[in-house]
Automatic annotation (TrEMBL), chain A:
Keywords: Kinase, Transferase. InterPro entries: DhaK_1, DhaK_dom, Dihydroxyacetone_Kinase. This is Dihydroxyacetone kinase subunit DhaK. It comes from Sulfobacillus benefaciens. GO terms for cellular component: cytosol. Residues 7-329 form the DhaK domain. GO terms for molecular function: glycerone kinase activity. GO terms for biological process: glycerol catabolic process.
UniProtKB/TrEMBL annotation, chain B:
The lineage of its organism: Bacteria, Bacillati, Bacillota, Clostridia, Eubacteriales. Pathway: Polyol metabolism; glycerol degradation. The gene is dhaL. It comes from Sulfobacillus benefaciens. This is phosphoenolpyruvate--glycerone phosphotransferase. GO terms for cellular component: cytosol. Residues 4-204 form the DhaL domain. InterPro entries: DhaK_L_YcgS, DhaL_dom, DhaL_dom_sf, Dihydroxyacetone_Kinase.
Length: 337, 208
């Protein structure tokens, strides 16, 4: 294992300190916790937004703490859900008197730990709601299983919920908006090379020179099937076909699109994938009104990408395009930090 | 069960998980993300520290169970932390604050631990999880055949690794391995293996 680090058991703490130092206008680490919160708290009377999960997905989630997105991000160990006591700290700091929305990625550990924290917060009298993101079409959805995973599309839910909260909507409205986004959100990812969690010291799976994994999650776990490497346009065709079929998108439906790098994919290759995605959507007569391309939800140094589509229902486009100012995502008007 | 046995049991569990750290990670690497051993070891080393030099009055079984649970809840993370931690906290209410507990109470408490996990994790026998080892074991203890508790516990402890091994042929329905579908077949569930170590240590602690 070749990694830039000091102590393998302290990677998360060291990273959080480094992030807080690098973005002092945006981020503050609550001492003795793994909670990153806004350097300049949101106005009183607005709904707080909290997310989090295992580390290793940077810039998720602390990169999205700031105006128009999150109020607190809770970091767990690498690829491991944070613990309820830490999530509770995040809820407490995010509560500005109008309640808190938790945005949870659908992984067994995340859901359980956030639910325990939600119960603890409710017991303290903090109004708390939760939404669960499950955008990954690679996994079959069924009542008898854990259901679909939450992956890169989560960023778009942060954006939409954050904009609604910043606009002064109440908790029910923010939560409903987030759920509308989730219902219209689908993603799928693939890996060209695995990643190595620091504590494990070895890759989570191995691939031959000509092999790739289709349908990966974001924790370095293997995908749903192994296949020979294909040209970017064939990969775009495969994942978009799956997503469009699942969403039952029709010609004329407009979408937002996120082309997300998994950590070790050159931006040049992501841009090539973006070109293929744009041509595919154009041929299918599905207009894309909002696009993001870059590293938004990574999996350490995994090589690969995911594609996310969000069908633009109701006011989703307006909330996506609303201003935000965070370390990892900035758009629209400048505001005082 | 007395407080001394409780502490010996959990110290043993921590030592066994530590000794099998690489095995547990390796099992998890095949069908998860390779950190089951690391996560359990992080929490259980705290528990070992606590019960090697106990600060809590040592005769209070309720407090022992609750503190063990709170410690796991705040240190393990992931699904294992939530399941083991909240189960030990919830089930602690079945235990007395003073003195030893009867075999009946101990069985009811063990049943409550597993029921809490089933409830939170929504897993049943056959889903390729820790429940495949825990529920089968508790049911043998509840059924009362053979009549001697220590004989039943012996059976559970000596069969636990076989039950864990039997998860190999199953397709995972819960937990992260469930995302692999049929590709989860052919691998032992790591949570079922650590659960087997837990039974073995209980048997050892009760026999001393």
């Amino acid at each position: 294992m070749k990694k830039l680090l000091d102590r393998v058991e302290a990677v998360v703490d060291d990273m959080l300190d480094g992030l807080a130092w690098s973005f002092p206008d945006y981020l503050r680490r609550i001492p003795q916790t793994r909670v990153m919160t806004r350097a300049r708290p949101k106005d009183l009377g607005k709904v707080g937004i909290v997310s989090g999960g295992g580390s290793g997905h940077e810039p998720a989630h602390s990169g999205y703490v700031g105006f128009g997105m999150l109020d607190a991000a809770v970091a767990g160990e690498v690829f491991t859900s944070p613990t309820p006591d830490q999530i509770l700290e995040g809820i407490r700091v995010a509560d500005r008197g109008a309640g808190v929305l938790l945005i949870i990625k659908n992984y067994t550990g995340d859901v359980m730990n956030f639910e325990i924290a939600k119960d603890m917060a409710s017991a303290e009298g903090i109004l708390t709601e939760a939404v669960i993101v499950n955008d990954d079409v690679a996994v079959e959805d069924s009542l008898f299983t854990t259901g679909r995973r939450g992956i890169a599309g989560t960023i778009l839910v942060h954006k939409i919920a954050g904009a609604l909260a910043e606009d002064g909507c109440d908790l029910t409205t923010v939560s409903r908006g987030a759920n509308t986004a989730i219902q219209n959100l689908r993603s799928m990812g693939f890996a060209l090379a695995p990643c190595t969690p620091p504590a494990a010291g070895q890759p989570s799976f191995t691939l031959a020179e000509n092999e790739m994994e289709m349908g990966i999650g974001i924790h370095g776990e293997p995908g749903t099937r192994r296949q020979p490497v294909q040209p970017a346009r064939d990969l775009a065709d495969y994942v978009l076909s799956r997503i469009v079929e699942d969403l039952q998108l029709k010609a004329g439906d407009s979408v937002a699109c996120l082309i997300n790098g998994m950590g070790a994919t050159p931006l040049m290759e992501l841009a090539i994938l973006a070109k293929d995605v744009s041509m595919w959507l154009q041929n299918a007569n599905i207009p894309c009104n909002f696009a993001l391309m870059g590293e938004y939800m990574t999996s350490l140094e995994m090589a690969g990408a995911s594609v996310t589509l969000l069908r633009l229902r109701d006011d989703l486009e307006r909330w996506l395009k609303a201003p935000c100012d965070t370390p990892a995502m900035r758009q629209g008007v400048m505001h005082e930090r | 069960m007395n407080a001394e046995q409780f502490m010996r049991w959990w110290i043993c569990f921590g030592q066994e998980v530590h000794a099998h750290l690489d095995d547990l990670n390796e099992l998890d690497r095949a069908i998860g993300d390779g950190d089951h051993g690391t996560n359990m070891d992080r929490g259980l080393s705290k528990v070992r520290e606590l019960w090697s030099l106990p600060k809590t009055p040592v005769e209070n079984l309720l407090e022992l169970s609750k503190t063990t649970g709170m410690t796991l809840l705040s240190t393990v993370g992931g699904a294992s932390g939530a399941l083991w931690g909240s189960a030990m906290v919830q089930a602690s209410q079945k235990l007395p604050v003073q003195g030893t507990c009867t075999t009946e109470t101990q069985i009811a408490w063990l049943d409550a631990i597993v029921a809490s996990m089933e409830n939170r994790g929504k897993a049943r026998i056959g889903d390729k999880t820790m429940i495949d080892v825990l529920r089968v074991g508790v049911d043998i203890l509840i059924k009362g055949d053979p009549p001697s508790f220590s004989e039943r516990l012996n059976t559970v402890a000596s069969s636990a690794r076989e039950w864990s091994e039997a998860t190999r042929s199953l397709i995972a329905k819960r937990g992260r391995a469930a995302y692999l579908g049929e590709r989860s077949q052919g691998h032992v569930d790591p949570g079922s293996f650590s659960a087997a170590l837990w039974w073995e240590c209980l048997n050892r602690a009760m026999g001393e």
